[in-house]
Amino acid sequence: MIIPVASDHAGYEAKEKVKKILEELDHMPVDFGTHSDESVDYPDYAIQVAEKVDDGEHALGILVCGSGQGMCMTANKFKNVRAALVYDENSARMTRQHNNANVLCLPGRRLDDKELKKIVTTWIDTEFDGGRHERRVNKIHDLTENK
pTM of the prediction? Predict the structure, then answer.
């Protein structure tokens, strides 16, 4: 699977690690920047990945900033994006199983290499449960459908 990724300066180092993890999992990351740790504005990078998921070009995307919050807030402005801020393996699993999250937002300054690998692997490998959760996800989507 092709997976667009992006970060701001605070998430740059973690994003580079995420790209390697994706490659180890036989996925192809497409890097939308930033390409250094020089200060940038996180919305500029979140938008690029969110657009690719929103329009259906890619099923999943990954964003990284210092806390994960800014990327998540930006990505969730797109009607077909369900971005989830994930700090641990359990939340990675639950955001996919119950919320059908399609953009993973990571706190680059908080996670070590081992945690990053567990979170990304779990998030990518977990399927949406559907069923009663589908009804709930549809209610979220309906909030932006008519706007």
Answer: 0.96
